[in-house]
Design goal:
heterodimer, A: mainly alpha, ABC transporter involved in vitamin B12 uptake, BtuC, 73% helix, B: alpha/beta, Rossmann fold, 6-stranded parallel beta sheet, 43% helix, elongated
């Protein structure tokens, strides 16, 4: 059981950070399918800086900054230039997916991976087992919850997604609020990326995010765009992933086992089921389904 | 005037590029892992660069980042009338069938699959023999009696590794228990170190002390856990012993370099005939890796036992189970 919980914590952590990031951005009214690319940018930068400086925390900061810069690019395209957020998100993902192997090739003469990092170049786990980033994940979720519920900035973000005009009428630029939210979203994805390459992993591998950005996005939706929901959603998907790692080839009867493909389709089946249930319930409730207004138009 | 200069330049360019017609042009199309995966594709690329250095051929390689790019890559080589177009990996078989049929005057070679056309040379490996051998090594060196297998993508090729590995491990010690996991069933599995690491941690927690990993670029994560927990891992395709010296028990060598070099040298000599070439234990096509990085892990008695098993496999006194033969109707080798 403890083994299962450790695995859940390990695989959920990047999902939690990315989902919280996605939640912030979408709550402010900017669809963010760039989570995948933002994470990848963070993972690459963190691994590269860790390799060059041998300082994992400097690398961590660099990873977070790099992802924020790409977050800012998404903000520039969608908010300032009013590009379609899906297109811009796809563009960011494509740029990062293409740029990382090229830079990898230039820096390390290998288009597939960075050199493997020594333990001293990586974030050390507390007690040899639990990474500080894993412990921080629920704390960050709690902080965002507090911000979301009670702080003025949290209120601004919600207004930016619901009635930006009201915010502007108050003399607060809804565009600036969105910008900040999207950049913060990038920073959180940077934490997730750095976790993958210099904490849990030992270096960068091409496309190492392996679709986690999209799973995080599903967690945001399942969690109905709230911090606690994003945390719960990420934990649900993390647990399912842990299940498929720990319970492959479940014996059925005789020599037959449940094919591994079934276990590995679980996250997707679960997403569909959860969305169906949530939507059904929401359709019956008087207020209807909650979706940030700027996203539903 | 300017236009005249431009035309002259173009003419000079055309003449100069077509002037080297006696130099054989070889096009190499690598699988998604890319030429620096330190495993499968690296081995193929090594053979091609060796041929370039020794035989003076012209080599152009393409790394396909997507399965849909194989066919256009082959076509572009075919259009430029390359003397040999090599497809690395079972995923390229369908595209090669198409392009080779349309270009009967050009020569093609494919690795890991059999394409039954007169102008295609199929290069296949006895992975089951090599996997049996490293399975035996794993069973021999395991103290806990539990060994692991981490496959990348669940496809017949990797299941072929798994089946014979299991058999070999049980041959060394009939009580050996084998824990098997696959990373995924899409090609993302080859680049998912995060998941590979969790799987490896889990297998070691289940008391496995040797893990054979056939998972492309995800392999490194397994080696990382092995070194962390002072356990053992087995690499694949290229000799990966150097990556974490002392913690990589051995590597199941699949000598794509030998195969690629052989087929290029036949093209250079003008003797390539097509058909199927099998690379096995006998002609060093597959093997287990023993070098200065893992030598200290074996006693002379171990080495003697392993050699006996290898000889028996070559002499066909032991038959490694072949997934392709057992599942002929589903295997995608043809």
């Amino acid at each position: 059981m403890t083994e299962f919980l450790f695995t859940v914590a390990s695989v959920s952590t990047p999902l939690v950070y990315a989902a919280l990031g996605g939640m912030l951005s979408e709550r402010a009214g900017v669809v963010n399918i760039a989570l995948e690319g933002l994470m990848l940018a963070g993972a690459f930068t963190a691994a590269t800086v860790a390799w060059a400086t041998k300082d994992p925390w400097l690398a961590f900061v660099a990873g977070v900054l790099a992802s924020s810069v790409f977050g800012a690019l998404h903000a520039l395209l969608t908010i300032t230039f009013r590009a379609h957020a899906i297109i811009s998100g796809l563009a960011v993902n494509a740029v990062v997916a293409g740029l990382t192997p090229v830079l990898c090739k230039t820096l390390f003469d290998s288009s597939t991976s960075s050199p493997m990092l020594e333990n001293a170049q990586r974030i050390t786990a507390l007690g040899g087992r639990v990474s500080p980033l894993v412990i921080c994940a629920p704390i960050v979720a709690l902080l965002l919850y507090v911000m979301h519920r009670w702080s003025r900035f949290g209120q601004y973000i919600r207004f930016a997604g619901e009635v930006p005009d009201a915010l502007d009428a108050q003399g607060i630029s809804s565009q600036k609020v969105r910008w900040l939210a999207v950049c913060l979203s990038g920073a959180l994805c940077g934490v997730a990326g750095a976790y993958l390459s210099i904490d849990h992993g030992a270096g960068f591998t091409r496309n190492m995010t392996a679709g986690r950005g999209y799973v995080a996005l599903a967690a945001v939706i399942v969690g109905r765009w709230t911090p606690q929901g994003a945390l719960a959603g990420a934990l649900i998907f993390g647990s399912i992933e842990a299940c498929q790692i720990l319970f492959q080839d479940i014996p059925l009867w005789g020599d037959r086992t449940l094919p591994v493909q079934w276990m590995q389709s679980l996250p997707f089946i679960a997403t569909l089921l959860v969305l169906a249930v949530v939507n059904r319930r929401a359709a019956k409730s008087p207020g209807g389904l909650f979706v940030p207004k700027a996203l539903s138009s | 005037m300017n236009r005249l200069v431009l035309w002259c330049a173009l003419l000079v360019f055309l003449v100069s590029t077509s002037g080297y017609s006696d130099q054989k042009k070889i096009g190499l199309i690598l699988d998604r892992g890319g030429k620096d995966d330190k495993s499968f594709n690296s081995a193929a690329f090594r053979g091609a660069t060796e041929a370039k250095a020794k035989l003076g051929i012209y080599l152009k390689e393409i790394e396909a980042s997507d399965d849909t790019l194989f066919e256009p890559a082959m076509r572009s080589f075919a259009q430029k009338k390359f003397d040999l177009i090599i497809g690395v990996g079972v995923n390229q078989a369908e595209a090669m069938k198409k392009v080779a049929r349309e270009n009967p005057d050009l020569r093609f070679a494919i690795i890991d699959a059999v394409v039954d056309l007169p102008n295609v040379t199929s290069l296949i490996f006895d992975e089951h023999d090599g996997s049996y051998l490293v399975g035996y090594v794993a069973g021999l060196k395991s103290k806990t009696g539990v060994v692991g297998f981490v496959g990348g993508m669940k496809i017949p090729l990797i299941q072929r590794f798994e089946l014979a590995y299991t058999q070999g491990a049980k041959a060394a010690n009939p009580k050996t228990e084998v824990v098997v996991n696959y990373i995924g069933f899409t090609s993302e599995a080859w680049n998912n170190p995060t998941k590979a690491k969790e799987i490896a941690k889990n297998q070691y927690a289940k008391k496995a002390d040797v893990i054979f990993t056939a998972a492309g670029a995800s392999n490194n994560a397994v080696f990382d856990v092995a070194a962390d927990q002072k356990k053992l891992a087995i690499g694949v395709d290229s000799n990966q012993n150097w990556i974490k010296p002392g913690f990589i028990l051995t590597s199941m060598l699949k000598r794509l370099d030998t195969a690629v070099y052989a087929v290029i040298s036949e093209v250079a000599a003008g003797t390539l005939r097509g058909g199927t070439k099998v690379f096995g234990l006998k002609n060093d096509g597959v093997d287990w890796a023993l070098d200065e990085h893992n030598k200290s892990l074996f006693t002379t008695a171990d080495l003697a036992k392993i050699k006996t098993v290898k000889d028996q496999l070559i002499a066909k006194k032991i038959t490694a189970k072949d997934y392709y033969k057992l599942h002929a109707h589903t295997a995608s080798s043809k």
